[in-house]
Design brief:
With 216 residues, this protein is mostly helical. The chain contains eleven helices and four strands. The two termini are 15 Å apart. The relative contact order is 0.10.
Length: 216
């Protein structure tokens, strides 16, 4: 399967670096840096280098992606055609869509081939002890109820594959506020990466809880 050999080799190198740090009693960043040095010197880096930046090339569509990819091969495999920017920085605001509206195609689930999010969560076997601190931290939920709702329409409620984030009406305040159902989480970390305000942080849950990867 594509990439399995790369993950195995990188895991072996990580284990070696971690073991040496434990033996020496020095788990500092300078000691653990040995992992990156070994990875860069291994065949993993050599094999992956030609495909580096490929996904970034196609971020604006097929035509632009083909042009960037052609330039990348001319300049050398793995070359950066232009400066990188964070993924969330490319997220469009509601106002951008209002300027050039496009029809939204609603996905119709059939329970057999196309499943709704909660059914997918069930099949993932994910589980979390409910009586523990949430492992999904939102620095300021006021942003969710105001700025993010107005500018982006709360994208986390849409891009989360496990329906963790839901805007629920608070009868006391008379407005919709963020509710985090962390027990649904399948640990994809999309929210941590794609949140336009970077106020969501994923941390490991207690007890190693999460999805049953063996049945995914």
């Amino acid at each position: 399967i594509k990439g399995i050999h790369l993950s195995m080799k990188s895991g072996m190198l990580a284990a070696e670096a971690a073991f040496e740090a434990m033996v020496s009693g020095d788990p500092s960043a300078s000691t653990l840096k040995a992992y990156k040095d070994r990875l860069d010197a291994s065949w993993v880096r050599t094999e992956m280098e030609p495909a580096k930046n490929m996904h970034h090339n196609f971020r604006d569509g097929f035509v632009g992606g083909m042009v960037r990819t052609g330039l990348q091969y001319i300049l050398g495999p793995g070359s950066a055609i232009e400066p990188f920017s964070d993924d969330y920085a490319h997220m469009k605001k509601i106002a951008d869509y209002a300027a050039s509206p496009r029809p939204v195609r609603e996905v119709q689930t059939d329970g057999t081939y196309l499943l709704d999010k909660l059914t997918d969560v069930f099949h993932s076997g994910t589980k979390h002890e409910e009586a523990q601190p949430a492992h999904l931290k939102i620095a300021d939920t006021e942003i969710c109820a105001t700025t993010c709702k107005e500018q982006y329409g709360n994208p986390c409620t849409k891009f989360c594959p496990a329906q963790v984030y839901n805007m629920v009406m608070n009868e006391e305040s008379g407005r919709e506020e963020m509710q985090v159902d962390f027990s649904n989480c399948v640990h994809c970390k999309t929210c941590d990466i794609r949140d336009p305000y970077q106020i969501i942080t994923w941390v490991p849950p207690e007890g190693g809880d999460g999805p049953e990867y063996g049945i995914l």
